[in-house]
Amino acid sequence: MESLDAKKFGGYDVYFLQEHSDKYECPICIMALCKPILTKCGHRLCLSCSEEMRKRNNGVLVCPLDNTILKPEETFRDKAIERDILQLKVMCNNFLKKCQWTGELKAINSHLGSCEYEEVKCLNEQCTTSILRKELSDHMETKCIYRLINCQHCNQKILFCEKQNHLESCECLPLYCVNQCGMKILRKEISSHIIDSCANTIIFCQYFSIGCNFKGMRKEQGTHVNSSTQNHLLMAISKVVALENKIMINEEEITSLKNEMEMRKKQDTQVDSLTQNQFLTTSKMIELENKILLIEKEMNTKMTISNNEKIYLPEEYIDDDYNNDNNNDEDNNDYNNDYNDDYNDQNEDYNEDYDENHNEDYNEDYNEDYNDDYNNDCNDYNDDCNDDFNNDNEDYDEDYNDDYNNDYNNDNDD
Ligand SMILES: [Zn+2]
Ligand SMILES: [Zn+2]
Ligand SMILES: [Zn+2]
Ligand SMILES: [Zn+2]
Ligand SMILES: [Zn+2]
Ligand SMILES: [Zn+2]
Ligand SMILES: [Zn+2]
């Protein structure tokens, strides 16, 4: 039932406890006046009835009792009558449904807001049921098809009307195994049950990998294994033999690969030592060539000194051989210069090649070591040579002077 104020127009549609004066009744709606107005012709109308009538009559309000035309300023609210009406005693609108409430008209709206016999709509949004307020909670808790319930299997909240749909897919609903093993399994565990434990699942014999092709229900496997022990043993033996052969072949392969590896290691070592030897040989060669050069230089110096000494002798005593020797001295110097040039060229060429073919680190180390060694050797050698040469020179001078003096004396005697 609509609230009394919410009606579009009209007076109070209520049940009064006592008869009341006609002056409380609207001539338009024939109900108790609601917000009454008094007209200039002395009649009363509900405010809403007067507005509705003016609207329907192109803005003109005519008194329904005496046809007086009433301008808006010719009516006014009658607060005194309104107060009287609101104090009249009424019964609850739901008295036919056994509501016992009675009270002043002005209190009826607040009573209807909580009247147990008032018809109300179910609070579940999708539900269209209207029901007495006193039955609402029972409806919503136990009867409404849009009430929320817990699934007893998965404990999810679902609408009561969707329970059937939910059970068709509920993962926790226990179902009989499709293999008809007689067990009830949760829907989500059925596939693992069938794969891992169902007694009726058809599986291969556990000795499939050694060649048994028996297939049967899981519960029959025990009987099969017990009755096929001999066969399984034979299969196992031939499998072992085959594996042994395979292992042997693999071992042979491993051995031959190991040998090959050893051979390659040896070859690598040989190549390393050959490379090392090549370096040593080359450096030794350079060392020897330098020594030869020094020796040749020393020899030339020695020969020049011995020829120069001859200058202090009388010319007639200088023999041809000795002159020839002196001339040869120039040749020797030329030869030495040529040799030095060639040697330097070779040395440069070698050093360039060597730099190209070897890394810088090695060169630095090698050059430092080599230079140290070489300088030490050269110094030693120079010391030795100087000593030897001085000795030789002294010997030679003594011998030559003796011989010359003897010859000269002999010639003089002659
Ligand atoms: Zn009215
Ligand atoms: Zn009137
Ligand atoms: Zn009531
Ligand atoms: Zn409902
Ligand atoms: Zn469920
Ligand atoms: Zn099963
Ligand atoms: Zn088997």
TrEMBL record:
Domain TRAF-type: 110-154, 166-212
Taxonomic superkingdom: Eukaryota
Family annotation (InterPro entries): Znf_C3HC4_RING-type, Znf_RING, Znf_RING/FYVE/PHD, Znf_TRAF
SMART domains for the chain: RING (SM00184)
All residue ranges annotated as the RING-type domain in the record: 26-67
Chain intervals for the UniProt region annotation (Disordered): 318-414
Keyword field: Metal-binding, Zinc, Zinc-finger
Zn-finger (TRAF-type) residues: 110-154, 166-212
UniProt biased composition (Acidic residues): 318-355, 362-414
Name of the featured protein: TNF receptor-associated factor 5-like isoform X1
Organism lineage string: Eukaryota, Metazoa, Cnidaria, Hydrozoa, Hydroidolina
